[in-house]
Write a structure and sequence with these properties.
170 residues, two-stranded antiparallel sheet, 2 strands
Length: 170
């Protein structure tokens, strides 16, 4: 397998001679995991499948970058790949939390609107969409609030779809 910069691939193969031997096993594992239909009757299976598929694509991108001498670029993608793989495994084991994972998008959308407003971007022509974003945010925000002061009851939005940190999820 070689694409991109041939001399970088040669150097990659010299540094990692076991790579060529592992490639057929990796290809077989990926085909087994992803060349199939995914039943959507069980809640969240399609979400888990999509996250796993994204992790595979991340891996392919890391391989492409590292094989062509751009290891730092590969490292930039690695953290996201790890988080997606961990989240996929966690949601596979806890399908009751898939809705929390999916609904957190409304928090992200509202943050994006607020960032655009604070940057001075005129969103007047998108008033209907912004109202929909706000309505969805208001519908789900209580699921993502955490108490920061027990005495006065002050709350804030948690930084993620779950109160658990990545280490705990992993």
């Amino acid at each position: 397998v070689a694409f991109g910069v041939p001399e970088e691939w040669r150097a990659f193969h010299e540094r990692h001679p076991e790579w060529q031997e592992a490639l057929p096993r990796l290809k077989n594992a990926l085909e087994h995991a992803f060349i199939r239909e995914v039943p959507v009757d069980e809640h969240g299976r399609h979400v888990v499948f999509a996250l796993r598929r994204l992790a595979v694509e991340d891996f392919a991108e890391i391989l492409l970058l590292c094989g062509n001498g751009y290891g730092i670029g590969g490292l930039k993608i690695l953290r996201g790949m790890y988080e997606r793989a961990v989240t996929a495994l966690y949601l596979a084991r806890h399908p009751e939390q898939v809705d929390d994972f999916l609904n957190y998008q409304h928090v992200h959308q509202r943050k994006m609107v607020n960032h655009a407003k604070s940057a001075g971007i005129d969103l007047g022509k998108h008033a209907k969409e912004i109202a929909e974003v706000e309505a969805e945010y208001q519908r789900v925000k209580s699921r993502y609030e955490e108490v920061v002061c027990q005495e006065c009851g002050t709350t804030r939005l948690q930084g993620s779809w779950t109160k658990r940190d990545l280490k705990t999820i992993a």
